[in-house]
Amino acid sequence: MTANVPVDPSPTLSLPPMGCGTWAWGNRLLWGYDESMDAELQAVFNLYMGSGITLFDSGDSYGTGRLLGRSEQLLGRFAKDYTGPNQESLCIATKLAAYPWRLTSEAMVRACQASAERLGRPVDLAQLHWSTANYFPWQEWPLLDGLMDLYERGLVRGVGLSNFGPQRLKQVYQRFRERGVPIATLQVQYSLISTYPVVELGLKDLCDELGIQLIAYSPLGLGLLTGKYDEKGPFPKGLRRFLFPYLLSGIRPVLDALQAIALFRQKTPAQVAINWCICKGTIPIPGAKTLAQAQQNLAALGWQLEAGEVMELDRAAARCKRHMVQNIFQTR
Tell me, which fold does domain 20-319 have in CATH? Predict the structure, then answer.
């Protein structure tokens, strides 16, 4: 199947309980990527696919500097080279950026076609990366029309949104419904240290009502919930080195609760944090740069926190004095 050949649209995409976020695959500034990592990233891809984790989330803005688009290029190469099970279930999702020069519906179509060229295969799930309602509301409707065009032309199997809150989602949903195009997914930042807008604004209940699958990005809070870091350091390189000291001093209740449950369960804090997202009815998409990280993420599956443990974590989250920085494009 070539990049821009129409695919059969599906009203609902069958997605696994967890996916893989690929923000780090090509990002040097935040995640320290370099080309020497590619072989292990291929191994990560193969492991996930063989384990039935077939959702990979990317974006056409992923990759820094000359590596812009690298995440999509790697996913395309890995998918082409993969020969194991679950090939028919692979779902490559990509987020199309609301760049200021993308002003028309056709610009969105062209953006998705460019992503498909980098992938060497059609995009399965095309998503608008962020809403422009907070700063250029007039720009957003043509971009959303472009998403619907992609679905109606059969260029993607499904369409979704990212960083939309319930108020804006209701308005957008009505427009999609009028054209008979289902919104398959909505992804927002969600973790034990970032419950807005899922809890505070009631976004999960609305998604359930509208039949939209909620995807949780950054379920490990950029790595803060892995248990590897504390207030004394050492801290990771890159931009996280400046953010972590500030946040770690205010999230101790969550870190302590994760550690206690992890010890009792014979799991890691990261596995407990991911499982908590699943218990909340979301599809978490933690990143993985190494096989060890991928194996750890996979061990978050196949079991479930008890209701009392979920409540304990919820109470710990409510006691935190600080929370993850919100995406500036997140709407209400």
Answer: TIM Barrel (3.20.20)
33 counts as catalytic: no
The residue-averaged pLDDT of 242-248 equals: 87
Residues 74-120 have pLDDT tens digits of 999 999 999 999 999 999 999 999 999 999 999 999 999 999 999 99
- The 8-class DSSP code of residue 57 comes to E
Query: Is-contact 272 305, C-beta < 8 A?
Result: yes
Distance CA 30, CA 213 (A): 28
Mean pLDDT, residues 140-144: 97
Residues 6+ apart with CB under 8 A from 322: 193, 246, 247, 249, 250, 251
Quote the CA–CA distance of 258 and 252 in Å, as a whole number.
10
| Residues 84/46, Cβ–Cβ less than 8 Å | yes
CA 13 – CA 18 distance, rounded (Å)? 14
**Average pLDDT of the residues of the chain:** 93
pTM for this predicted structure = 0.94
Crossing angle of helices 137-152/166-179, nearest 10°? Answer: 40
- 203: closest CA among 169, 167, 166, 168? 166
Domain definitions of the chain by residue range: 20-319
β strands within 253-303, DSSP E: 283-284
Tokens 């998604």 belong to which residue?
207
Which of 33, 48, 62, 173 is the catalytic position?
62
| pLDDT digit string, tens, across residues 40-49 | 999 999 999 9
